Amino acid sequence: MTAKSAAAAARATVYGYPRQGQGRELKKAIEGYWKGRVDADALRATATELRRTNWRQLAEAGIHEVPTGDFSYYDHVLDTSVMVGAIPERHRAAVEADALDGYFAMARGTQDAAPLEMTKWFDTNYHYLVPELGPDTVFTADSTQQVAALGQALALGLTARPVLVGPVTYLLLAKPAPGVAADFDPLTLLDRLLPVYAQVLTDLRTAGAEWVQLDEPALVQDRTPAELNAAARAYRDLGGRTDRPKLLVASYFDRLGDALPVLAKAPVEGLALDFTEAAAANLDALAAVGGLPGKRLVAGVVNGRNIWVNDLEKALATLGTLLGLADRVDVAASCSLLHVPLDATAERDIEPQILRWLAFARQKTAEIVTLAKGLGGGTDTIAAELAANRADLASRAGSALTHDPAVRARTAAVTATDGRRSQPYPERAAAQRAHLRLPLLPTTTIGSFPQTTELRTARADLRAGRIDSAGYEERIRAEIGEVISFQEKTGLDVLVHGEAERNDMVQYFAEQLTGYLATQHGWVQSYGTRYVRPPILAGDISRPEAMTVRWTTYAQSLTAKPVKGMLTGPVTMLAWSFVRDDQPLADTARQVALALRDEVNDLEAAGTSVIQVDEPALRETLPLRACDHPEYLAWATEAFRLTTAGVRPDTQIHTHMCYAEFGDIVQAIDDLDADVISLEAARSHMQVARELAGHGYPREAGPGVYDIHSPRVPGADEAAALLRRGLEAIPAERLWVNPDCGLKTRAWPETRASLENLVTAARTVRTELSAS
Question: For residue 705, what are the contacts with CB-CB under 8 A and spacing of at least 6?
């Protein structure tokens, strides 16, 4: 096919779409089901209607081929585990008794069976459920869910393409099941898994699929020759089968690198590549292999992870370069639109001109359709859209919101000394022990306490004008008093105020900093039914006034025990926001760090002796390629130290991280120079404690003994057993006892019971230590 005919054949498509619905209908239906207010038929009906709505919106916008299989009740990797029959033994009876309840048991756990481990999906803030595999794993095909979704779309008269997690990525994301040797490599199960995928592909072809997309984002990471050989074998096997649909292998989030020649040679009909995060690298690599003659190329030229309008002329230039490198070039977003909110037009509180800078899922869909039209028919066919796009880009570039000379001058004046504590850790630790006088194995929580219906109602009433600010603040004071009282009665050693006033750990601060925009309806799935509204980092950042001092000092006035000041760190403020794409992330991080430094210093001046600066996103934001790690970790750790280094030696600085793999960044954790770090460890059975010990981490640490992402209440014996395992790696004088994460999403009954058990466990182990 010539470049001209490839352009004329261009079609618009997407890999996935937000699942929740305009009013988060899916979240409400699932949580209603968990609470017994919604039955299974009603939940399935809601899901069916949401899928139908999404497909119709896409088709009406001009998308030629809609995705199926991207919708999930909880997580698409968990759906894949169900599809291939990889059900943990502890959940098998529940799944056999009721497939839906068993599915949710794997996701959330039960009182008798722990859930699957949860961790971040590559470098996004989406969490997936980690498959558990072992040498005895038997895979069996169950394509029921995938076939049903395809059938629903086809019944609407749509052209549909099922989207599945690819077999190589699935195995690379998996971990050894409990009881299996830690060095077991799930990739050794590939030959056992491929026939199951082949059966699913056959089932989908029989159901009417012309194309099936197999997502292999793990191939954009550094891969060994053995892993690349496994990828080659997988697609030689699947591509060589005759009873299958056409195969589109998709990879995204970074450059494909050494995996591109492997996939280009594979007997598959198409590749889908990211031309936003790694446009130049993927273009060069594609040209180096001689393109994709006779194959389909789906070009992800619209950023699927950020919310700024696309530069349409730049994207068209990229698409034009790709013509001639493939038999057919189609237009898409760089990845699933799962990672952005649904519709920017729902935002009523953002200035209309600024709103035109933003593109959520529906606006990105329109951009994709416009680009496909322009590629196929020439720029004259989209002249009006191009002119409007140029105006919007110029408006943003020239806005006073984006540039504050005072902020830029302060940032430029930062020196290396500003990022160093005044004394080394051993001297600080001695000063802190004398000042705080904490017991062995001190107990604390990570920060937030349950956000009750009453709190959410009060916040809604304030926004709606049904109560005034005085009434709202009285409710917050009462909640803080209850939280402090509970912690004292339970026997916790370092308390928190509970964050009753905070809607979200990033949004709360973003709403008080200049340069940020907040949305009202910009919900994005984090995990399961947990949705967040990432704020938008639009301009230079500063702090007009104190943000947390008032409520922290109020809480401290209610107790003689230390109350932690609670802040979100600069890297997490970036990672859980939609960031600027017009300046380096390091520059933005330094601006945020200076604003937070002012808050840290004000907390200390107000009498706060323990200050926690959370950085759960430090690992999540790590670039996917190792060669990019040093630069990122240098500015990320510098930003944390810049935030925290201005305090006295006897002020104890804590940080917190959760739900990511930390083993490969232990040196960076050390470089933060925090006095205490708390980390997720319950689901991973204290793996992080062993990783810290292996590194020789010299400071205090609190690997979590209570998994807060499950409603189950861990017993005191269970928490004590985890604590003893932690002591095998970390000396008692440096070990803290805490949950994995904040308690915002939990209910009070389970929170009370779990924290009481946590304190009991700490006391039990203290007694054992004193007797030994």
Answer: 681, 682, 714, 719, 722, 723, 726, 737, 738, 739, 758, 761
For residues 215 and 169, the answer to whether their CB atoms sit within 8 Å is yes
Pair 570, 579: CB distance under 8 Å: no
Strand, helix or coil at 394? helix
Encode pLDDT of 381-412 as tens digits. Answer: 999 999 999 999 999 999 998 999 999 999 99
Pairing of strands 292-302, 270-274: parallel
Strand partners, 182: none
pLDDT of residue 7: 61
Residue type, 32: G
Whether the Cβ atoms of residue 143 and residue 202 lie closer than 8 Å to each other: no
Q: How many CB atoms lie within 10 A of CB 557?
A: 11
From the list 76, 91, 654, 709, the catalytic residue is 709
Indicate the helix (H) or strand (E) that contains 690: helix 687-695
Q: Note the pLDDT of residue 662.
A: 79
What pLDDT score does 681 carry? 85
pLDDT at 594: 98
How long, in residues, is the chain?
772
**DSSP letter, residue 440:** S
At 52 the three-state DSSP class reads helix
Provide the CA 58 distance to its chain's centre, in angstroms: 25
Residue 456, classed as helix, strand or coil, is helix
Q: Mark whether 709 is an active-site residue.
A: yes
Predicted local confidence at residue 660, as pLDDT: 64
Distance CA 22, CA 27 (A): 11
DSSP for 182-250? TT--GGGGHHHHHHHHHHHHHHHHHTT-SEEEEE-GGGGS---HHHHHHHHHHHHHHHT-SSS-EEEEE
pLDDT of residue 69: 96
Helices 629-644, 585-605: crossing angle, 10 deg rounding: 20
| Nearest to 296, CA basis, from 161, 199, 146 | 161
**Residues of the chain falling short of pLDDT 50:** none
Ramachandran angles phi, psi of 727, nearest 5°: -70, -20
Burial of 8 by CB count in 10 Å (0-12 exposed, 13-18 middle, 19+ buried)? middle
Backbone angles phi, psi at 586, to 5 degrees: -60, -40
For residue 329, give both structure tokens: 């070039």
3 state DSSP class of 699:
coil
361-377 and 312-322 helices cross at what angle (nearest 10)? 50
Q: How far is CA 126 from CA 176, 301, 556, in A?
A: 22, 21, 35
Whole-number pLDDT of residue 4: 60
Q: Burial code of 260-297, b = ≥16 C-beta within 10 A, e = fewer?
A: bbbbbebebbbbbbbbbbbbebbbebbeeeebbeebbb
Burial class (CB in 10 A: 0-12, 13-18, 19+), 368: buried
For position 2, what pLDDT does the model report?
A: 60
Cβ neighbours of residue 311 under 8 Å, at least 6 residues apart? 389, 393
The C-alpha atoms of residue 396 and residue 436 are separated, in whole angstroms, by 49
Measured CA to CA, the distance from residue 150 to residue 382 in angstroms comes to: 32
Spatial distance between the Cα atoms of 216 and 173, rounded to a whole number of angstroms: 11
The whole-angstrom separation of Cα 514 and Cα 540 is 7
For residue 542, what pLDDT is reported? 96
**C-alpha–C-alpha distance, residues 106 and 709, integer Å:** 12
* Cα–Cα dist 115/91, whole Å: 9
